[in-house]
Amino acid sequence: MTSLPVGRFPYAYVLDTEYVAAPGEKQSPVCLAAHGFNKGRRVALFFDQPRVCPFPDLKNTLFISYNLPAELKTMLSLGWELPEHCIDLYVEFLNLINGRWRGKDCLKDLGTGLVDAVTYFGGNPMDFWKTSKDKERDYIKENGTTPPEGITMEAHQTRILAYCEEDVNATVWLGRQMLRELDLEQAPWRGKYCKAHAYFEHNGIPVDAERFQAIERESLKLKLSIANKIEETHRYRVYVIEGKETTTIKPHPVFKMNRFTNLLASKGITVGGRGAMWQATPSGDPMIEDEYFGVMCNVYPELRPLRQCRKSLNNLSRFETVLGEDGFNRSTLWMFGTRTSRNNPKAKDFLLSRPHWVRNLIAPRKGMALVACDVTGAEDWLAAGFSGDPELMRIYSSGADSYMEFAAVTGTVPPGTTRDKSNKGLEIIRAQHKTAKLAIQYGVGGETLRKYLGVPLWKAQYIVNSHKQAYAVYWAWVDDQAKLAAARGYVETDFGWRESIEQMSFNSILNFPQQAGCSELLRCTCILLVDAGWGYALAAPHHDALYMHVEAERAEECKRAVEDAFIEAGHIIMGLPEFPLRVHTDVVYHPNHYEDAEGAEIWDIVCEHFGWDKFAAFEQEESEGCSAAYSS
To answer: Averaged over 87-116, what is the pLDDT?
Structure first.
């Protein structure tokens, strides 16, 4: 690797900040410390009063940090401009150890904090930290910029700045070990995404706080309403109500496994054993882990309401407030948190990770609009473009439904059959081929596909073979990718995100280009938007979708900007301008709310429970906190 020429920058700083941030709130800056990486200048600021940015030339200064978005959010909270050039040693450390093991231990599981990185490179933490990090963090969290009783302001500032300096010293040492190994272009490119990530976590998603909190207060009663209504409508006979109002254990719905087993049997769905249509746990019960349940709902779509009910009831059990006082959902998104480099927020903290109906609580503020843009068939586009398979490229470019096209390949429907949502039989065929297509592209063979589809082994193998014959160019590319990974010992995107294949399955190797490619596509789009001045409007990323919260009069302009950024990012990622990405964008203006079609049935039940008109406008007024979010 070519080492980064830090010396070419007039200024290069390693920085660290301390701050206070209650759940759901923006950061309240406490202090900042920075060391000149190549010229020795030092900066120490305590934010007990307004401070101007101390860095003279943000366009030509390199900033280095460990978990850089924390520092960038401090700058946003202070109203400072964000720097142009950044390197996050945390991200680079994640990339370095991704998929690597030490004996029986995955390196990532051993720790990814600054202390862990210093230790990994042979440093002694005792050389840098003279105090307990937990103790100092607690002190800062409890006191912020105001000293506790009996402590002078000078002593208070000295203590906090000294701790901040310890982190900077450790990061300077770590930087000198790591920078020599970093790629000249790729590390700063990932650093540019840190700016978008900081905007996401600083701005957050606008939520109708009153209704969110009503759901939180009524969560137990709402669970009863949802379970009762789903049972009344679909007659699953799986949920029973236990407990009495007069007891300490209040009435609550309980999912009964024996009843679910009976439900599957009544539909002719066998569980466990050879030739079974539904996988079983070691105890013999039907597997109901949510991801697997979701896969099986593609095969048996009549079970989707039951899965959504179960998922909603589980979520309502931990429906804690994760909103700021201004009604925005802010959470740590944990950038590059998965092996394929996707964001990895905690489901309970991030509103978009909750069941689909909860997204109906997203509500643009007065004078604002929500722009929601997602990619159409991102993984289909990546598989087709990366492999150059002409048939997959034809299907994607035509806008045809890829699952119905595959159903025609297997001979289940005549060629040219299009999707008809009113045709239940056709929808079941489509759902089955959706499950099959996704599973096959992830490397599933006939034996496993048989379990997913509940068909004989010969038919499952026939479906697998049909895919491989129809899309032979794709499968030749897959074989080449597997051989390349085996020869190199890792898989890698064109932008340098790498995973070691030390303990990586063939299916994971197969899945990596599409999953990691989606991640690179989203990051590239965000970088283009920030460079174009739209950072202030970034509200949330979610897989291959973006949500923007923007002034109503700029909504259409923002819509075009997001679509153009996705398409340009597609050109950058794929290098095939003649094979453009397809995107879909919705614009929601105040006082309307976002609507998620997949959550419609449960949302109707929620609205009926509270007596809300589901079509009524949200009347969330713009708060002072909301205005502040758009002041930078």
So the answer is: 94
